[in-house]
Amino acid sequence: NWETNNQFANSSFDIVATEDNTTVTITPSVDILGRTAGVTYSVVLDRGQCYSGASVSKFSSQHVGGSHITSDKPIAVTFKDDSLVAGDNDDCRDLGGDQLVPVNLVGTEYIVVRGNFNPEDEIFITATEDNTQIFRDGGTAPLTFLNAGEIVNLSLSNDNVYITSDKPIYVIHATGNSCEVGLALLPKLNCTGS
Fold it and tell me: Number of H helices and number of E strands within the chain?
C-alpha cells in the first residue's frame, strides 16, 4: 500500500529565482522546517538563488503537496519526495519529483497510461480552485470534490484512466519499473507545445 509504506520519504519543494530581487510568497500546506502550516511568509531571492521548504514530518499525510507559491517575477519550482517505497519491497527506495508549471498551464483533461510498476501505479490530483469536481473514465457523477490545494490519490490498476475536472488541476503520475519508483507531472490532454 503506497500510502502507508512511503512514510519514510522526505518531502520538499525547491524554488529558484530567474531575476534579482524576486519576492516569493509561500503558504505551506504542512509544517516545514522553520515555518508553520497555513501561515504565509515571503522570501527575497536574487537570480540563481534557491529556497527549499522541507516537511518536518516523514509521514505521507504530511508532505508538502498543496502548498501555495506565488512570486512577483518568474521562478522555477520543483517538488520531490526522497526514499519513496511502494508495495512491500523495502529494498527499492527512490527519489521522485518534477518541475511544476504555472497554474495557467494546467488543464481539465488528462489520460494516465500504466507503466511497468509493481504494485499499482498511483495518481495524485491537486485542485487549483475551490469546489473542483473530479471525474474518472467519462463518469457523470463526480468522484470527489476538492478545494484549492487539496489532493486526492487514485490507484491505476487498468492499462489507462481518463481524468477530467470542471476546473484546472495538477495530475502527478507515480509509476516505474518493477519496484523502482518515479514521479512525473502530466501535461494536460490538449497540450500542443509552445
Answer: 1, 15
What dihedral do alpha carbons 129, 17, 56, 89 form, nearest 10°?
Answer: 80
Angle at 91 between CA 182 and CA 119, to 5 degrees: 55
Tell me how crowded residue 39 is: count the other CB atoms within 10 A of its CB: 10
DSSP H or E segment with residue 151: strand 151-156
Query: What pLDDT was estimated at residue 63?
Result: 81
Q: Is the dihedral of CA 36, 41, 46, 47 positive or negative?
A: positive
Per-residue pLDDT at 184: 87
Cell of 106: 494546467
- Binned average pLDDT, 10 residues per bin, the chain of 194 residues: 50 95 96 94 97 86 87 94 66 77 93 82 93 94 94 88 96 82 86 62
pTM of the model: 0.84
Burial class (CB in 10 A: 0-12, 13-18, 19+), 126: buried
Q: By three-state DSSP, how is residue 191 classified?
A: coil
Residue with cell 511544476: 100
Strand, helix or coil for residue 104: helix
